[in-house]
Amino acid sequence: MRILFASFAAILLSGVASPTSAEDQATQPSAASPPPAITPPPVASTRQGRLDQLFTDLKRERNEKAAERIAGRIWNEWNQSGSASIDLMMQWAQKATEDQKFDVALDFLDQVVTLQPDYAEGWNRRATVHFLMKNYGKSMSDIDHTLHLEPRHFGALSGLAQIMAETGHKQSALEAWQKVLTIYPMMRSAQDQVSTLSEELAGEGI
């Protein structure tokens, strides 16, 4: 959505030209001809264009395994920061998270969101670490940043739904999972959670 396609129009000179001989016409400078049109790259060749197409495919797909493959391709696009140093810090943060060295992971992710604040996955990854540390307020703040940059981030929305459920806000959790399903209809965990929460809320008379 931040991709700006520029179009260039040739400036055509108007006026009545004086007659010229065939020889004169043959020696007219090539600069008098309009420059070739510059065609913007196909939308699908841009990162945003690829994501838009993948999300369209994800919403239409009704085979669970095929939908998982499309979701995986979306994650691959999200993970591309465009910076080798950012990618390296993300890898270090992931390894620290897997080793449950959450403070170390946060140190790396703090640098990521500072150096590249428009990189949605940096915020989402930090939200995940805060969630694992049960720092729900900080996690929700990072989720908010993620969704501001990428409103279709079903991973961040899933995290929000889990926080709402764990803090006793079942209705908000249900709404978050329902939003996930509008983006990724075949996500099995979201389907299960919507079913479970709907039954629980119905049983509570809400």
TrEMBL record:
The keyword Disulfide bond does not apply. Residues 21-46 are annotated as: Disordered. InterPro entries: TPR-like_helical_dom_sf, TPR_rpt. Residues 32-43 have a biased composition (Pro residues). Keywords: Signal. It comes from the Bacteria. Residues 1-22 form the signal peptide. This is Uncharacterized protein. The lineage of its organism: Bacteria, Pseudomonadati, Pseudomonadota, Alphaproteobacteria, Hyphomicrobiales.
